[in-house]
Each structure stands twice: as structure tokens, then as C-alpha cells.
Amino acid sequence: MEVNKKLNKLGVYGDEIDKYLSHLIDKNFLNETRFSENYVRGKFNNNDWGKIKIIQELKSRKISTWNINNALSEICDEDYLKKIRGLSIKIIKENSGIPKEKIKEKILNKLQYKGWEKELIFKEINTLIN
Fold first, then answer.
1. Rounded to two decimals, what is the model's pTM?
2. What are the residue boundaries of the structural domains of the chain, listed by start?
3. Radius of gyration (C-alpha) of the chain in whole angstroms
4. Rounded to the nearest 5 degrees, what angle is found at the Cα of 94, between the Cα atoms of 89 and 118?
5. Mean pLDDT for back-to-back runs of 10 residues, the chain (130 residues)
6. What is the spatial distance between Cα 86 and Cα 44, in angstroms, rounded to a whole number?
7. Could you write out the DSSP letters of every residue in 36-48?
8. CB-based contacts of 69: which residues, under 8 Å, 6+ apart?
9. Would you state the pLDDT for residue 4?
């Protein structure tokens, strides 16, 4: 989809696009599976995104459900839980002088915005803040 848009901007349309795309796929320059795996790793490791936001973004790029599920397997459950714990602790440290209820609200808002599952967020809040 992104290559298609780029080719349109360059003035390439119709059958010409198919010709370019076929060539790129044949030479393995375009690979949806590789793209989605790299995208998931990058957004998880570098941007601290949760699975919800990653899925939304991949769907917006018209990535197949199979490739999305396959790419999400790049994140092991242990790393996923460690990441949400680390993010939660970081938010707590950054807001140490404010009431617990406000800290809980900040954790919820920030992690939800980054696409983390509510159940996991609440579990972390309840574990870290008494």
C-alpha cells in the first residue's frame, strides 16, 4: 500500500504499478511478512507500544491478519510483561510527589494511549500501588 502511494506520487499509475510491484516482490525487496515482523519489533522495543496499537497500525497499512498474528509472535510473553512493568515503574518514579490516585490515572492514560491492554494495566497498577 505504501509503495503504491509512493508510485502514485511519482506519477506511476495502472498497469505500470503492477509491473513495478511484481518486480519488487520477485526480487524480495517487498515482503509483507518481513515488514510486519520488523514493524512489531521496532514499535515494541523502541516506541514501547502495546499490542493493541501495533495491531491497529498494521491493519491501517492493510497488512493481512495472518501476517499480523505471525509478527506479534515476535514478542514473547515474558518480555511483554517486563516492558509494561518497567513503563509503569518509570511513570511512578516520574510522579513520586503526587497522590496515588493521580499516579494510577497517569499510568492508565499513558499506557492505554500506547496501546496496552486494560487488564494488564490494572494488574500492574494493583501490584505496584497499594
1. 0.87
2. 2-72, 77-128
3. 19
4. 45
5. 89 90 90 95 98 97 96 96 97 93 96 98 92
6. 13
7. HHHHHHHHHHHH-
8. none
9. 87
